[in-house]
TrEMBL record:
PANTHER family: MEMBRANE PROTEIN, PUTATIVE (AFU_ORTHOLOGUE AFUA_1G04315)-RELATED. Pfam families: DUF2470. It comes from Scheffersomyces stipitis (strain ATCC 58785 / CBS 6054 / NBRC 10063 / NRRL Y-11545) (Yeast). It comes from the Eukaryota. Residues 2-90 form the DUF2470 domain. This is DUF2470 domain-containing protein.
């Protein structure tokens, strides 16, 4: 059982091990080599975590007695069968103590639904009109190559609305992206911090939110619920 617990935690739960050292061991992340953190021993009484000190470059260890490891669920370890629940409770407590979630998001979840892709098309449409509103209008002009095939199928109201959008594309784009930036600051950035998202996927989340808006918030929920 000791080998199984040690192997599983070392392979799949490095984040929790680092959190244990920070909260229960009172170490800052700068005091140990994060890649060196490993459980070296597990018993019915305690867990021992080994790491390399950045101060001395020497291997060191820290032992946490189950009875001394406070957490919100107050799990009591009386045998190996209780250790899993204790480790989970400790991970949740240690992450929350630092203002984080015990779950880490390591990837960016891209668009997959029609409405999400429409936002990219709308952004490009508005951007094209900001650059040159006659650029889009020229596609529907009477002498345009495909205008004879397109015009009969475009209702007058749609054409009128499209004309208004083209005339006010800059204002619409400014308002839309201002709202998206506000959402990014209030929702996406806090989520990035809470779930400790690495740099590259963090930038991907921010870029997608800048274009899509609330669709990105919905995708966050699928990963965090």
């Amino acid at each position: 059982m000791s080998d199984r617990i040690r192997g599983h935690m070392n392979a799949d739960h490095q984040l929790a091990l680092k959190d244990y050292l920070v909260v229960y061991g009172n170490l800052s992340l700068s005091e140990f080599d994060e890649s060196s953190v490993l459980i070296t021993d597990v018993t019915e009484k305690s867990i021992t975590i080994g790491y390399v000190s950045t101060k001395t470059s020497n291997p060191e260890s820290f032992t946490i007695n189950w009875d001394d490891a406070s957490e919100k669920e107050n799990v009591t370890v009386s045998g190996f069968g209780d250790i899993k629940n204790k480790l989970i409770a400790m991970a949740n407590f240690a992450a929350e103590k630092q203002g984080y979630s015990s779950k880490q998001i390591k990837k960016a979840l891209g668009p997959s639904k029609f409405g999400e892709y429409v936002m990219y098309a709308a952004f490009l449409y508005l951007l094209a009109n900001v650059y040159d509103k006659n650029l889009v209008r020229s596609v529907f002009a009477k002498d345009a190559l495909f205008s004879g095939y397109i015009a009969p199928y475009v209702p007058a109201l749609v054409a009128k609305v499209s004309g208004l959008i083209q005339d006010h594309a800059g204002l619409i784009l400014s308002i839309t992206e201002s709202i998206h930036i506000l959402e990014i600051l209030l929702v996406t950035v806090p989520n990035i911090k809470k779930y400790r998202v690495p740099l590259v996927p963090s930038l991907q989340w921010i870029f997608m939110h800048f274009i899509e808006g609330f669709f990105v918030i919905k995708r966050w929920k699928t990963l965090t619920n």
